[in-house]
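Today's session is about reading a structure prediction critically. Students often jump straight to the picture, but the first step is always the sequence itself: look for stretches that repeat, for charged clusters, for runs of hydrophobic residues. Only then move on to the predicted structure, which in these notes is written as discrete structure tokens rather than atom positions. Here is the chain we will use throughout the hour.
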Amino acid sequence: MKVLPSDALVVVDVQNDFCPGGALAVDEGAHVVPVINGLMPLFQIIVATRDWHPEDHCSFGDPPEFVDGSWPAHCVANSPGAEFHGDLELPGDAIIVDKGTDPEKEAYSGFSETSLAEQLCARGIERIFICGLATEYCVQQTAIDGLRNGFKVVLVENACRGINFPPGSAARAVEEMKAAGVEVHWSRDLE
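Below is the predicted structure for this chain, in token form.
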């Protein structure tokens, strides 16, 4: 699959708190980093989304139940956990999109109450390639919202990892994305 000037890579939430040792770590979360680093040179436009939560965000539970609406405190704005993984080689001109900044609203999608769609349209982007963490939450919601916003959407499956709880949830999310119209490829398919 040929990457075109009208394509953008959207790197979803590759942040310390979602990687091993983080507050809400995804198994093998850091394994996406070298794959994503290999993809970035193919794209002229790169977007990186990040959770950027206030300390009292509505998604935090005490004690956390590790379900929607009751997660451990994670990716608190300006904290080390909210920083991008140290090995992620984002270019200096990458578009950074902060989400989940409203303490009263959950925001899994990079399009949720952000200017992402407008920024992509302003650059003539027609197709987005999605990768990052976690498959069945922020990756899936960003992909589905990408379709809703009129973009063609490609999931780079081997550049994603899921929480996979309950077991099989990440694979189900991929099937749901396919059913919605998302194309699924591996990084080796892109040139």
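Discussion point for the tutorial: The chain has four helices and six strands.
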